[in-house]
Amino acid sequence: MDRLVITGGNRLEGQIPISGAKNAALPLMCAGLLSSDSLVLSNLPQLADIRTLSDLLGGHGAELKVERDGGPLNGGRTLSITTKDITSTVAPYDIVRKMRASILVLGPLLAREGEATVSLPGGCAIGNRPIDLHLKGFQEMGAEIELKEGYVRAHAPGGRLEGGTVHFPMVSVGATENILMAATLARGTTVIENAAREPEISDLANCLNKMGARVTGIGSETLTVEGVDRLHGGEHDVMPDRIEAGSYAAAAAITNGQIELTGDNLKQVLTGSYDVLKEAGLGFEQTDRGLMCWLKSDHIQGINVVTQPYPGFPTDMQAQVMALMTLCDGASVITETIFENRFMHVPELARMGADITVHGNTATVRGVKKLLGAPVMATDLRASMSLVLAGLAAEGETYVNRIYHLDRGYEALVEKLTACGAKIIREKADGV
Ligand SMILES: CC(=O)N[C@H]1[C@@H](OP(=O)(O)OP(=O)(O)OC[C@H]2O[C@@H](n3ccc(=O)[nH]c3=O)[C@H](O)[C@@H]2O)O[C@H](CO)[C@@H](O)[C@@H]1O
Ligand SMILES: C=C(OP(=O)(O)O)C(=O)O
């Protein structure tokens, strides 16, 4: 198993190109199941999750072809997904267990074939993560659902889902995406109330419209989808990764460096994190190529922050901001409201000298003068990134184990940080 070895204390300076967003790319790829024509997606990041989903889609009959490969530092990949026929409506446990977003094939399969059998994804390190809202939504569209032997078996009587009103009692990104995709091919109109408003959902809705879907209300909490008989192919550029951008902005600040994030509309992409990072002392300046980020104030400023659905502060930035706060002037209070168990990075940061107390869903972080390198390991993707950030600032060497989490969501992490002067290498480590 690989690990990262980071020698901390280097001021980072340089450019980092922001990749296409994992959390946009995954639902967009699933949309490829909705049409027998080709969906061509550009700016796709090369990540473990994308490979996992490619395997899953291949099992349903999709043909995936790399049309262009600019590499992570030059525009990413262009992939065509052509699903002439759905050859299997079963999403097996062996693939779904690797990646929870696999549940997003349920809506497209059910919409196109009138049936789907998808393994229940189970929980993960950050929480229970049930899928009841997805299932309730499909039932409101006429589907019959059965849970058997760890699988969801969904069936649309008469072979087609019916439009209806799907009201979500709480905001769910995945459930909104699943119902949105299913509704494009349903009979009649579907109104999705209390829809999540994350930009990745707008990216998906815009792509679906390019494929002939009729989605209105994009970006709002009510999405209206007029079902059509078939979707055609389309071309779509995956939006930039707002969490990757925020993570590298935090890297600039924690090393007292200066990083130019390159890509389009990055200030807007950072909505939700932008104000929080500014309050923490970051300066931002729009440049020709993107957004310059640096620590503007003398010290990192302690802040109080609460994770919220978009446009609030994203839970996927919570661990990285906590890493930043370990070195703040004064204290910071961080409240996690989205996932019930998303503080697994706290004990690891504490091993590096951080002073953090957790009560329920609130962490109080008292800034320390310095962090000290240590062997650490994380249980999820963003927690791993928080340890990388801490390692970049720490005195001495930090060994980040279990980096398969980082491979899920940060494209070319070592290359991007090295290009800015970080001392970071990836090496084999036995038995961790
Ligand atoms: C691939 C992807 O895009 N992942 C993102 C997506 O995950 P994901 O789509 O899984 O997250 P949700 O928005 O669905 O989850 C939000 C909350 O709702 C709960 N819930 C969700 C569905 C359900 O049927 N029942 C239920 O109770 C979850 O347990 C969680 O507490 O949004 C999260 C919240 O912004 C992000 O952290 C993830 O990075
Ligand atoms: C939690 C995340 O992803 P997933 O929903 O795929 O687990 C994430 O991207 O931070």
Automatic annotation (TrEMBL):
Keywords: Cell cycle, Cell division, Cell shape, Cell wall biogenesis/degradation, Cytoplasm, Peptidoglycan synthesis, Pyruvate, Transferase
Catalytic reactions on record: phosphoenolpyruvate + UDP-N-acetyl-alpha-D-glucosamine = UDP-N-acetyl-3-O-(1-carboxyvinyl)-alpha-D-glucosamine + phosphate
Primary site of residence: cytoplasm
InterPro entries: Enolpyruvate_Tfrase_dom, Enolpyruvate_Tfrase_sf, MurA_subfamily, RNA3'P_cycl/enolpyr_Trfase_a/b, UDP_GlcNAc_COvinyl_MurA
Superkingdom of this protein's organism: Bacteria
A Gene Ontology molecular function term of the record: UDP-N-acetylglucosamine 1-carboxyvinyltransferase activity
Entry GO terms, CC: cytoplasm
E.C. designation(s): 2.5.1.7
Pfam family, one: EPSP_synthase
GO biological process, one term: cell division
Pathway: Cell wall biogenesis; peptidoglycan biosynthesis
Record: active site: 124 (proton donor)
Keyword Cell division: yes
Positions where 2-(S-cysteinyl)pyruvic acid O-phosphothioketal occurs in the chain: 124
Binding site for phosphoenolpyruvate: 22-23
Function of the protein: Cell wall formation. Adds enolpyruvyl to UDP-N-acetylglucosamine.
Similarity section: Belongs to the EPSP synthase family. MurA subfamily.
Protein name, entry field: UDP-N-acetylglucosamine 1-carboxyvinyltransferase
Lineage, highest ranks first: Bacteria, Pseudomonadati, Pseudomonadota, Alphaproteobacteria, Emcibacterales
